[in-house]
Design a protein that fits this description.
The complex is a heterodimer of chains A (206) and B (268). With 206 residues, chain A is an alpha+beta fold. Helix content of chain A is 32%, strand content 20%. Chain A has a single domain, classed as Glutaredoxin (3-Layer(aba) Sandwich), CATH 3.40.30.10. Chain A contains 6 helices and 9 strands. In chain B, strands 1-4-7 form a 3-stranded antiparallel β-sheet, with no helix packed on it. Chain B has a two-stranded antiparallel sheet with strand order 2-3. The chains are: A alpha+beta (206), B alpha+beta (268). Chains A and B meet through helix 1, helix 2 and helix 5 of A and helix 3 of B. Chain A: Keywords: Copper, Disulfide bond, Metal-binding, Signal. Chain A: Belongs to the SCO1/2 family. Chain A: InterPro entries: SCO1/SenC, Thioredoxin-like_sf. Chain A: This is Protein SCO1/2.
Protein backbone atom coordinates (compact mmCIF):
# COMPACT_ATOMS: atom_id res chain seq x y z
CA UNK A 1 0.00 0.00 0.00
CA UNK A 2 2.93 2.29 0.46
CA UNK A 3 5.30 1.20 -2.19
CA UNK A 4 6.66 3.97 -4.30
CA UNK A 5 7.96 2.90 -7.61
CA UNK A 6 11.27 4.34 -8.53
CA UNK A 7 10.79 4.32 -12.29
CA UNK A 8 8.06 6.94 -12.11
CA UNK A 9 10.05 9.21 -9.85
CA UNK A 10 13.15 8.80 -11.96
CA UNK A 11 11.28 9.52 -15.14
CA UNK A 12 9.75 12.60 -13.61
CA UNK A 13 13.10 13.78 -12.30
CA UNK A 14 14.68 13.29 -15.68
CA UNK A 15 11.89 15.06 -17.46
CA UNK A 16 12.13 18.03 -15.13
CA UNK A 17 15.89 18.12 -15.35
CA UNK A 18 15.80 17.91 -19.11
CA UNK A 19 13.28 20.67 -19.41
CA UNK A 20 15.24 23.07 -17.27
CA UNK A 21 18.91 22.38 -17.24
CA UNK A 22 19.81 22.01 -20.87
CA UNK A 23 20.29 19.04 -23.09
CA UNK A 24 22.61 16.71 -21.23
CA UNK A 25 22.18 16.93 -17.49
CA UNK A 26 22.29 13.19 -17.07
CA UNK A 27 25.59 12.81 -18.86
CA UNK A 28 26.97 15.76 -16.94
CA UNK A 29 25.76 14.33 -13.68
CA UNK A 30 28.13 11.46 -14.27
CA UNK A 31 31.01 13.90 -14.06
CA UNK A 32 30.70 14.27 -10.32
CA UNK A 33 33.37 16.21 -8.52
CA UNK A 34 36.80 14.96 -7.57
CA UNK A 35 35.69 14.51 -3.98
CA UNK A 36 33.23 11.79 -4.91
CA UNK A 37 35.21 9.27 -6.95
CA UNK A 38 32.95 6.30 -6.18
CA UNK A 39 29.86 8.21 -7.20
CA UNK A 40 31.17 8.86 -10.71
CA UNK A 41 30.35 5.28 -11.71
CA UNK A 42 26.83 5.43 -10.35
CA UNK A 43 23.69 6.76 -11.99
CA UNK A 44 22.64 10.26 -11.00
CA UNK A 45 19.52 8.92 -9.34
CA UNK A 46 21.46 6.48 -7.18
CA UNK A 47 20.97 7.02 -3.47
CA UNK A 48 24.71 6.35 -3.20
CA UNK A 49 25.25 9.87 -4.53
CA UNK A 50 24.99 10.95 -0.90
CA UNK A 51 28.47 11.59 0.39
CA UNK A 52 28.57 9.79 3.72
CA UNK A 53 31.11 7.88 5.75
CA UNK A 54 29.96 5.12 8.07
CA UNK A 55 31.34 2.54 10.47
CA UNK A 56 29.97 -0.99 10.64
CA UNK A 57 29.29 -3.11 13.71
CA UNK A 58 32.82 -4.53 13.50
CA UNK A 59 34.35 -1.05 13.62
CA UNK A 60 35.25 -1.07 9.92
CA UNK A 61 34.92 2.29 8.16
CA UNK A 62 33.26 2.40 4.76
CA UNK A 63 31.63 4.84 2.36
CA UNK A 64 27.88 4.70 1.82
CA UNK A 65 28.53 4.13 -1.88
CA UNK A 66 30.51 0.98 -1.01
CA UNK A 67 27.15 -0.78 -0.68
CA UNK A 68 26.73 -0.75 -4.45
CA UNK A 69 27.13 -3.93 -6.45
CA UNK A 70 24.16 -5.95 -5.24
CA UNK A 71 20.55 -5.19 -4.35
CA UNK A 72 20.21 -3.89 -0.81
CA UNK A 73 17.44 -3.74 1.71
CA UNK A 74 18.04 -0.59 3.77
CA UNK A 75 16.36 0.70 6.89
CA UNK A 76 17.01 3.25 9.62
CA UNK A 77 16.53 2.55 13.30
CA UNK A 78 18.25 3.01 16.65
CA UNK A 79 19.46 0.45 19.16
CA UNK A 80 17.58 1.66 22.22
CA UNK A 81 14.23 1.23 20.50
CA UNK A 82 11.99 -1.46 21.81
CA UNK A 83 8.77 -1.13 19.85
CA UNK A 84 9.18 -0.60 16.13
CA UNK A 85 12.84 -1.40 15.64
CA UNK A 86 12.60 -5.08 16.59
CA UNK A 87 9.74 -5.31 14.10
CA UNK A 88 11.93 -3.84 11.37
CA UNK A 89 14.66 -6.39 12.05
CA UNK A 90 12.28 -9.35 12.32
CA UNK A 91 10.39 -8.27 9.21
CA UNK A 92 13.60 -8.04 7.18
CA UNK A 93 14.78 -11.36 8.59
CA UNK A 94 11.54 -13.07 7.64
CA UNK A 95 11.63 -11.50 4.21
CA UNK A 96 15.13 -12.73 3.52
CA UNK A 97 14.16 -16.21 4.71
CA UNK A 98 11.23 -16.30 2.30
CA UNK A 99 13.61 -15.72 -0.56
CA UNK A 100 15.35 -19.02 0.06
CA UNK A 101 18.77 -19.38 -1.52
CA UNK A 102 18.28 -16.15 -3.46
CA UNK A 103 18.16 -14.29 -0.16
CA UNK A 104 21.91 -14.58 0.16
CA UNK A 105 22.31 -12.25 -2.79
CA UNK A 106 20.36 -9.55 -1.01
CA UNK A 107 22.41 -7.18 1.10
CA UNK A 108 20.80 -5.88 4.28
CA UNK A 109 21.94 -2.60 5.81
CA UNK A 110 20.49 -1.13 8.98
CA UNK A 111 21.55 2.45 9.65
CA UNK A 112 21.30 4.05 13.06
CA UNK A 113 19.64 7.44 13.52
CA UNK A 114 21.56 7.88 16.76
CA UNK A 115 25.30 7.78 16.05
CA UNK A 116 26.08 9.46 19.38
CA UNK A 117 24.88 6.47 21.36
CA UNK A 118 24.98 3.63 18.85
CA UNK A 119 28.63 2.69 18.87
CA UNK A 120 29.77 -0.28 16.78
CA UNK A 121 29.67 -2.33 19.99
CA UNK A 122 26.07 -1.32 20.66
CA UNK A 123 25.15 -2.23 17.11
CA UNK A 124 26.95 -5.57 17.37
CA UNK A 125 24.90 -6.25 20.49
CA UNK A 126 21.67 -5.63 18.57
CA UNK A 127 22.82 -8.03 15.87
CA UNK A 128 23.54 -10.67 18.49
CA UNK A 129 20.29 -10.11 20.39
CA UNK A 130 18.24 -10.50 17.26
CA UNK A 131 20.34 -13.30 15.78
CA UNK A 132 20.40 -11.62 12.41
CA UNK A 133 22.54 -13.16 9.66
CA UNK A 134 26.25 -12.41 9.95
CA UNK A 135 26.27 -10.72 6.54
CA UNK A 136 23.94 -7.94 7.67
CA UNK A 137 25.55 -4.59 8.10
CA UNK A 138 24.68 -2.33 11.01
CA UNK A 139 25.96 1.09 10.14
CA UNK A 140 26.76 4.16 12.17
CA UNK A 141 26.95 7.25 9.96
CA UNK A 142 29.14 10.23 10.66
CA UNK A 143 26.82 12.41 12.76
CA UNK A 144 26.51 15.12 10.11
CA UNK A 145 25.44 12.61 7.45
CA UNK A 146 22.37 11.22 9.21
CA UNK A 147 19.96 13.87 7.93
CA UNK A 148 21.07 13.49 4.33
CA UNK A 149 20.75 9.70 4.44
CA UNK A 150 17.33 9.97 6.05
CA UNK A 151 16.21 12.47 3.42
CA UNK A 152 17.04 10.29 0.44
CA UNK A 153 15.62 7.21 2.16
CA UNK A 154 12.41 9.07 2.93
CA UNK A 155 12.83 8.57 6.66
CA UNK A 156 11.41 11.24 8.92
CA UNK A 157 12.68 11.33 12.46
CA UNK A 158 12.77 13.49 15.50
CA UNK A 159 14.54 13.09 18.81
CA UNK A 160 12.23 13.46 21.74
CA UNK A 161 13.43 14.91 25.00
CA UNK A 162 13.23 11.51 26.70
CA UNK A 163 15.91 10.19 24.36
CA UNK A 164 13.56 8.18 22.18
CA UNK A 165 13.22 8.90 18.49
CA UNK A 166 10.03 9.10 16.52
CA UNK A 167 10.84 7.77 13.08
CA UNK A 168 9.50 6.28 9.91
CA UNK A 169 9.77 2.49 9.98
CA UNK A 170 10.40 1.48 6.43
CA UNK A 171 12.38 -1.00 4.38
CA UNK A 172 13.77 0.51 1.20
CA UNK A 173 14.81 -1.75 -1.67
CA UNK A 174 17.73 -0.45 -3.72
CA UNK A 175 18.96 -2.05 -6.92
CA UNK A 176 22.64 -2.87 -7.34
CA UNK A 177 23.35 0.69 -8.43
CA UNK A 178 21.52 2.23 -5.50
CA UNK A 179 18.35 3.31 -7.25
CA UNK A 180 15.21 3.00 -5.15
CA UNK A 181 13.01 0.22 -6.49
CA UNK A 182 10.32 -0.08 -3.83
CA UNK A 183 9.62 0.61 -0.19
CA UNK A 184 7.56 -1.10 2.47
CA UNK A 185 6.24 0.47 5.64
CA UNK A 186 6.83 -1.87 8.53
CA UNK A 187 3.74 -2.40 10.64
CA UNK A 188 4.41 -5.92 11.91
CA UNK A 189 6.80 -8.81 11.62
CA UNK A 190 5.16 -10.28 8.53
CA UNK A 191 6.67 -9.02 5.28
CA UNK A 192 4.30 -7.48 2.76
CA UNK A 193 3.87 -10.12 0.03
CA UNK A 194 3.84 -7.50 -2.72
CA UNK A 195 7.14 -6.12 -1.47
CA UNK A 196 8.66 -9.60 -1.28
CA UNK A 197 7.66 -10.03 -4.91
CA UNK A 198 9.48 -6.83 -5.81
CA UNK A 199 12.59 -8.02 -4.01
CA UNK A 200 12.43 -11.32 -5.94
CA UNK A 201 12.06 -9.49 -9.23
CA UNK A 202 14.99 -7.21 -8.45
CA UNK A 203 17.22 -10.15 -7.55
CA UNK A 204 16.14 -11.98 -10.70
CA UNK A 205 16.99 -8.97 -12.84
CA UNK A 206 20.34 -8.41 -11.19
CA UNK B 1 5.87 10.79 3.15
CA UNK B 2 6.61 13.93 1.34
CA UNK B 3 7.03 12.25 -2.02
CA UNK B 4 3.53 10.89 -2.00
CA UNK B 5 1.85 14.29 -1.79
CA UNK B 6 3.64 16.49 -4.25
CA UNK B 7 0.60 18.37 -5.49
CA UNK B 8 -0.54 19.64 -2.15
CA UNK B 9 2.98 20.53 -1.11
CA UNK B 10 3.57 22.38 -4.31
CA UNK B 11 0.34 24.29 -4.02
CA UNK B 12 0.93 25.30 -0.45
CA UNK B 13 4.51 26.27 -1.14
CA UNK B 14 3.37 28.32 -4.11
CA UNK B 15 0.81 30.16 -2.02
CA UNK B 16 3.34 30.99 0.64
CA UNK B 17 5.82 32.11 -1.97
CA UNK B 18 3.41 34.48 -3.66
CA UNK B 19 5.34 37.48 -2.48
CA UNK B 20 8.89 36.43 -3.21
CA UNK B 21 11.58 38.88 -2.36
CA UNK B 22 13.42 40.36 -5.29
CA UNK B 23 16.74 38.63 -5.50
CA UNK B 24 19.48 41.04 -4.69
CA UNK B 25 17.30 43.37 -2.68
CA UNK B 26 18.92 42.81 0.68
CA UNK B 27 22.18 43.15 2.52
CA UNK B 28 24.85 45.46 1.23
CA UNK B 29 27.38 45.29 4.00
CA UNK B 30 27.93 41.57 4.41
CA UNK B 31 31.43 40.24 4.03
CA UNK B 32 31.87 38.93 0.52
CA UNK B 33 32.67 35.32 -0.22
CA UNK B 34 34.25 32.75 2.03
CA UNK B 35 34.37 34.10 5.54
CA UNK B 36 31.58 32.92 7.78
CA UNK B 37 30.82 34.85 10.96
CA UNK B 38 29.41 32.65 13.71
CA UNK B 39 27.43 33.93 16.67
CA UNK B 40 26.92 32.07 19.92
CA UNK B 41 23.41 31.29 21.06
CA UNK B 42 23.28 30.35 24.73
CA UNK B 43 20.32 27.99 24.59
CA UNK B 44 18.12 27.17 27.56
CA UNK B 45 14.58 26.08 28.33
CA UNK B 46 12.35 27.25 25.51
CA UNK B 47 8.64 27.20 24.91
CA UNK B 48 8.20 26.65 21.20
CA UNK B 49 5.20 27.99 19.36
CA UNK B 50 4.98 24.52 17.88
CA UNK B 51 3.67 21.58 19.80
CA UNK B 52 5.88 18.69 18.82
CA UNK B 53 3.79 15.56 19.14
CA UNK B 54 2.64 15.03 22.69
CA UNK B 55 5.66 16.46 24.40
CA UNK B 56 5.61 19.05 27.11
CA UNK B 57 5.68 22.58 25.76
CA UNK B 58 9.01 23.65 27.28
CA UNK B 59 11.99 21.98 25.64
CA UNK B 60 15.73 22.28 26.29
CA UNK B 61 17.88 23.94 23.64
CA UNK B 62 21.61 23.19 23.93
CA UNK B 63 24.06 26.04 23.33
CA UNK B 64 24.97 26.34 19.65
CA UNK B 65 26.34 28.73 17.09
CA UNK B 66 24.53 30.26 14.16
CA UNK B 67 25.79 32.17 11.16
CA UNK B 68 25.40 35.91 11.58
CA UNK B 69 23.87 36.13 8.12
CA UNK B 70 22.27 33.76 5.66
CA UNK B 71 24.63 32.17 3.15
CA UNK B 72 25.24 34.66 0.33
CA UNK B 73 25.41 34.24 -3.44
CA UNK B 74 29.16 34.80 -3.23
CA UNK B 75 29.63 32.18 -0.53
CA UNK B 76 27.57 29.67 -2.44
CA UNK B 77 29.45 30.39 -5.67
CA UNK B 78 32.70 29.68 -3.84
CA UNK B 79 31.19 26.41 -2.62
CA UNK B 80 30.16 25.20 -6.07
CA UNK B 81 33.63 26.12 -7.33
CA UNK B 82 35.11 23.84 -4.66
CA UNK B 83 32.44 21.16 -5.09
CA UNK B 84 31.39 21.28 -8.74
CA UNK B 85 28.99 18.36 -8.31
CA UNK B 86 26.66 20.98 -6.82
CA UNK B 87 26.65 23.14 -9.97
CA UNK B 88 23.18 23.25 -11.49
CA UNK B 89 24.50 21.53 -14.63
CA UNK B 90 26.23 18.71 -12.76
CA UNK B 91 24.05 18.04 -9.75
CA UNK B 92 23.10 14.33 -9.66
CA UNK B 93 19.48 13.59 -10.55
CA UNK B 94 18.92 12.37 -6.98
CA UNK B 95 19.35 15.94 -5.71
CA UNK B 96 18.26 17.93 -8.71
CA UNK B 97 15.21 20.12 -8.93
CA UNK B 98 13.98 22.25 -11.80
CA UNK B 99 14.60 25.60 -10.18
CA UNK B 100 17.92 24.84 -8.52
CA UNK B 101 20.09 27.97 -8.90
CA UNK B 102 18.01 28.71 -11.98
CA UNK B 103 18.20 32.46 -11.39
CA UNK B 104 22.00 32.51 -11.63
CA UNK B 105 23.43 33.87 -14.84
CA UNK B 106 25.60 30.80 -15.35
CA UNK B 107 26.19 27.44 -13.74
CA UNK B 108 29.12 28.71 -11.71
CA UNK B 109 28.26 32.34 -11.02
CA UNK B 110 25.28 34.44 -9.96
CA UNK B 111 26.18 37.12 -12.49
CA UNK B 112 26.23 40.89 -12.31
CA UNK B 113 22.46 41.26 -11.94
CA UNK B 114 22.50 39.66 -8.49
CA UNK B 115 23.97 41.16 -5.35
CA UNK B 116 26.84 38.85 -4.33
CA UNK B 117 26.09 39.57 -0.68
CA UNK B 118 22.38 38.84 -0.91
CA UNK B 119 21.18 35.51 0.47
CA UNK B 120 21.42 32.70 -2.04
CA UNK B 121 17.96 31.39 -2.92
CA UNK B 122 16.65 28.63 -5.18
CA UNK B 123 18.78 26.16 -3.24
CA UNK B 124 17.25 22.88 -2.19
CA UNK B 125 17.70 21.13 1.12
CA UNK B 126 20.33 18.74 -0.20
CA UNK B 127 22.58 21.56 -1.36
CA UNK B 128 22.07 23.54 1.83
CA UNK B 129 22.92 20.45 3.88
CA UNK B 130 26.04 19.80 1.80
CA UNK B 131 27.19 23.42 2.14
CA UNK B 132 26.85 23.36 5.90
CA UNK B 133 28.59 20.01 6.26
CA UNK B 134 31.47 21.31 4.18
CA UNK B 135 31.61 24.40 6.42
CA UNK B 136 32.03 22.16 9.45
CA UNK B 137 28.48 22.67 10.58
CA UNK B 138 24.94 21.59 9.87
CA UNK B 139 21.59 23.14 9.25
CA UNK B 140 19.92 24.34 12.45
CA UNK B 141 16.93 22.48 13.78
CA UNK B 142 13.63 24.34 13.71
CA UNK B 143 13.69 24.68 17.50
CA UNK B 144 17.17 26.23 17.43
CA UNK B 145 16.14 28.60 14.69
CA UNK B 146 13.03 29.60 16.59
CA UNK B 147 15.06 30.13 19.76
CA UNK B 148 17.44 32.52 18.00
CA UNK B 149 14.57 34.24 16.20
CA UNK B 150 12.67 34.90 19.43
CA UNK B 151 15.15 37.68 20.13
CA UNK B 152 15.02 41.26 18.94
CA UNK B 153 17.75 43.89 19.21
CA UNK B 154 17.36 44.26 22.97
CA UNK B 155 15.51 41.23 24.31
CA UNK B 156 16.39 37.54 24.24
CA UNK B 157 12.70 36.70 24.08
CA UNK B 158 10.58 39.46 22.59
CA UNK B 159 7.66 37.24 21.74
CA UNK B 160 5.38 38.71 24.40
CA UNK B 161 5.53 42.00 22.48
CA UNK B 162 2.42 41.93 20.38
CA UNK B 163 3.54 44.64 17.96
CA UNK B 164 6.86 42.95 17.30
CA UNK B 165 5.05 39.71 16.75
CA UNK B 166 2.53 41.23 14.38
CA UNK B 167 5.26 42.58 12.14
CA UNK B 168 6.45 39.03 11.59
CA UNK B 169 3.41 38.32 9.51
CA UNK B 170 5.57 39.88 6.79
CA UNK B 171 8.46 37.42 7.23
CA UNK B 172 9.58 36.07 3.89
CA UNK B 173 8.50 39.21 2.03
CA UNK B 174 10.29 42.48 1.23
CA UNK B 175 8.25 44.08 4.03
CA UNK B 176 9.70 41.82 6.71
CA UNK B 177 11.09 43.51 9.85
CA UNK B 178 14.70 42.58 8.99
CA UNK B 179 14.43 43.05 5.25
CA UNK B 180 16.02 46.49 5.28
CA UNK B 181 19.77 46.57 4.83
CA UNK B 182 20.21 48.59 8.02
CA UNK B 183 18.02 46.39 10.21
CA UNK B 184 19.79 45.85 13.54
CA UNK B 185 21.26 42.55 14.66
CA UNK B 186 19.43 40.77 17.45
CA UNK B 187 20.89 40.46 20.94
CA UNK B 188 23.05 37.55 19.81
CA UNK B 189 24.48 39.52 16.90
CA UNK B 190 22.47 37.48 14.38
CA UNK B 191 20.93 39.35 11.43
CA UNK B 192 18.06 38.81 9.07
CA UNK B 193 16.19 36.03 10.88
CA UNK B 194 12.96 37.89 10.22
CA UNK B 195 14.02 38.97 6.78
CA UNK B 196 12.75 38.77 3.24
CA UNK B 197 13.84 35.16 2.92
CA UNK B 198 12.75 31.94 4.52
CA UNK B 199 15.49 29.59 5.62
CA UNK B 200 15.82 25.82 5.52
CA UNK B 201 16.15 23.89 8.75
CA UNK B 202 17.86 20.51 9.09
CA UNK B 203 14.66 18.87 10.23
CA UNK B 204 12.45 20.56 7.63
CA UNK B 205 11.42 17.28 6.08
CA UNK B 206 10.71 15.69 9.46
CA UNK B 207 8.58 18.47 10.89
CA UNK B 208 5.18 16.87 10.51
CA UNK B 209 5.97 14.41 13.24
CA UNK B 210 3.01 12.26 12.31
CA UNK B 211 5.14 9.46 10.89
CA UNK B 212 3.13 6.83 12.70
CA UNK B 213 0.05 7.81 10.73
CA UNK B 214 1.54 7.54 7.32
CA UNK B 215 0.65 3.90 6.84
CA UNK B 216 -3.04 4.67 7.05
CA UNK B 217 -5.32 5.73 4.31
CA UNK B 218 -6.31 8.89 6.13
CA UNK B 219 -2.80 9.79 7.21
CA UNK B 220 -1.85 12.32 4.58
CA UNK B 221 -5.06 14.28 4.79
CA UNK B 222 -4.91 14.51 8.55
CA UNK B 223 -1.34 15.71 8.54
CA UNK B 224 -2.11 18.62 6.31
CA UNK B 225 -5.43 19.69 7.71
CA UNK B 226 -6.53 18.89 11.23
CA UNK B 227 -3.26 17.71 12.64
CA UNK B 228 -1.19 20.65 11.58
CA UNK B 229 -3.84 23.15 12.66
CA UNK B 230 -3.75 21.69 16.14
CA UNK B 231 -0.03 21.35 16.48
CA UNK B 232 0.80 24.74 17.97
CA UNK B 233 1.31 25.86 21.54
CA UNK B 234 0.94 29.40 20.38
CA UNK B 235 -0.98 29.83 17.12
CA UNK B 236 -0.70 33.62 17.48
CA UNK B 237 3.06 33.48 16.94
CA UNK B 238 2.50 34.18 13.27
CA UNK B 239 6.10 34.21 12.18
CA UNK B 240 6.88 30.83 13.70
CA UNK B 241 3.61 29.27 12.58
CA UNK B 242 3.94 30.51 9.02
CA UNK B 243 7.52 29.31 8.88
CA UNK B 244 6.63 25.91 10.27
CA UNK B 245 3.77 25.42 7.82
CA UNK B 246 5.96 26.42 4.88
CA UNK B 247 8.88 24.21 5.81
CA UNK B 248 6.76 21.20 6.66
CA UNK B 249 5.14 21.41 3.22
CA UNK B 250 8.42 21.31 1.34
CA UNK B 251 10.15 18.27 -0.08
CA UNK B 252 13.96 18.24 0.21
CA UNK B 253 14.27 18.92 -3.52
CA UNK B 254 12.06 22.00 -3.42
CA UNK B 255 13.44 25.43 -4.23
CA UNK B 256 11.84 28.84 -3.84
CA UNK B 257 12.83 32.35 -4.86
CA UNK B 258 12.62 33.48 -1.25
CA UNK B 259 14.08 30.45 0.50
CA UNK B 260 17.73 30.37 1.51
CA UNK B 261 19.57 29.02 4.52
CA UNK B 262 22.21 29.59 7.13
CA UNK B 263 24.27 27.03 9.03
CA UNK B 264 24.62 26.17 12.69
CA UNK B 265 27.14 24.21 14.62
CA UNK B 266 27.00 22.56 18.00
CA UNK B 267 29.18 24.04 20.72
CA UNK B 268 32.48 22.21 20.87
Amino acid sequence: MNHHFKPLRTALGLALALSLCGPLPVALAALAGPDAPAATMLPGSSLYQVDAGLTDQHGQPLRWSDLHGRPQLVSMFYANCHLMCPLILENAKALQKQLGADGERLGVAVITLDPARDTPQALAAVAADHRTPAAWRYLRPEPDAVRALASVLGVRYRFRDDGSINHTSVLVLLDAEGREVARSEVTGIAPDPAFVQQVRATLAAD
Amino acid sequence: MSRSMPLLSTTLAAVLALAPALAGAAATDAASGGGIAWRSIPGGAFRSAVRFEEERPVLPVAPFQLMERPVSNAQFAAFVARRPEWRRDRIPALFSSPGYLGHWESADAPGARLDPDAPVVHVNWYAADAFCREAGGRLPDFLEWEFAAAADATRADARHDRQWRLRQANDGTPHAPDAAADAPANVYGVRGLHGAYWEWTGDATSLLGGGDRRGRDDGDALQYCGASAMAFNDPADYGAVKRFVLLSALTPAATLGNLGFRCARSQP
